[in-house]
Prior knowledge:
The chain is α+β, with helices and mostly antiparallel strands and 256 residues long. It has two domains: 2-145, no CATH class; 163-256, Arc Repressor Mutant, subunit A (Orthogonal Bundle). It is built from twelve helices and six strands. Strands 1-2-5-3-4-6 form a six-stranded antiparallel β-sheet.
Amino acid sequence: MRYWYQPPHALLADYVRTVLVADMLTDSGDNRVPLVVAGMPAVVAELPKGVSAGASIALTLFGSPVPPEFSLDETHAIVIAYCFKPFVLASLFDIQAQKVAKGALDFDIWNKRKSAHLKNRLSVSQNPADLIDAMDDFFINLLDEQRHACEVIRIATDKMMLDSGAESLNRLPDALNITKRTFQRMFKKYVGISPTEYRRICQFQQSFHQVRSRQFEKLSDVAADNGFADQSHFVRSFREFSQTTPGKYLDEGLHK
């Protein structure tokens, strides 16, 4: 297998990290997907040599990161994988987050009509560039249909990762021009947890990074820097997510 990466279409750049193209006819003895694909959600198109009908094309959606042990079918000639940023696929495909997180999802199960349309377009494409054009058009059309939901989730998750304070979360619905109830419903559907739960995860991750890198003088500084009410709230949150206290982590590390 010989493979290469290329940047996504400009209209998809906010949602797609990279595009992998793999020539399966080059024998390398290893058909596992490259690690960059295995580490993120992706849509994988596998096309046999000399395809003349869309039915023989495999289209698979991985809502959670592609498993490292996933192997590409040796009967296929070309594989194209669109590697997506986190939390994109559920909103782009309008699927419950819990459903896409269960594992690989065949396009025919998701939407047989749209799957057939894409397969037919791919079946008449002559080279990798044409195949990518076909997939770009498909994703751009999906984005046009689901742009509002995609933008709400993208902006909300980005903002909470940068500022995980409770006040920042409270301001988000107004900033997105939607009601608090609509925001909570959309977030739970497409991310799989509530905005408050996601905010707390971001808050812990930021504080954990600060502790791990020892970028503080006192633990109360970490609490203040990351929007905790006080040091005791920070310590309780740290223990909840890591099963240890900041002090024990600094002395002993994690034992899980």
